[in-house]
Design a protein that fits this description.
The protein has 121 residues and is an all-alpha fold. It has one domain (19-112). It has five helices and no strands. It has helices at 2-13, 30-37, 39-58, 62-76, 82-115.
Length: 121
């Protein structure tokens, strides 16, 4: 019984083998392995995952956004050090935040136009 309790306790303390957007047990590129081993990069991956999911949900051009993300991933995977990966994430996070802001601004503008009278145009 003691062994079972100890085993459950040890499993609870083990770090997750999962980054926000992929399974670290299946990490194959240098970038993926770096993300799984660096808490700062893991946090950035988590943030980017949330922003990408939100951008995809509100995108009118979903396929274009998916293509852009795949291109970014290929670019990120060319990095050979953590600083390069961190910069790639910072740039992509900023781009997705701008995309999200544009989407919100456009939505507010469209809502305002629907409420406008024909003479307001």
């Amino acid at each position: 019984m003691r062994t079972a309790i100890w085993l459950v306790f040890c499993l609870f303390l083990m770090p997750s083998a999962r980054a926000a957007t992929f399974d670290c047990n299946k990490a194959s590129s240098f970038a993926e392995k770096a993300i799984c081993s660096d808490s700062r990069l893991t946090a950035m991956d988590d943030e980017l995952g949330r922003l990408y999911k939100a951008a995809l949900a509100s995108a009118s051009e979903k396929e274009a956004l998916k293509t852009e993300q795949k291109a970014w991933l290929a670019s990120r995977d060319q990095c050979q050090d953590s600083n390069c990966i961190m910069k790639a994430y910072a740039d992509r996070i900023a781009a997705l935040k701008r995309c999200g802001q544009f989407s919100r601004d456009r939505h507010l503008h469209d809502e305002g136009r629907r409420g406008a009278s024909p003479t307001d145009e």
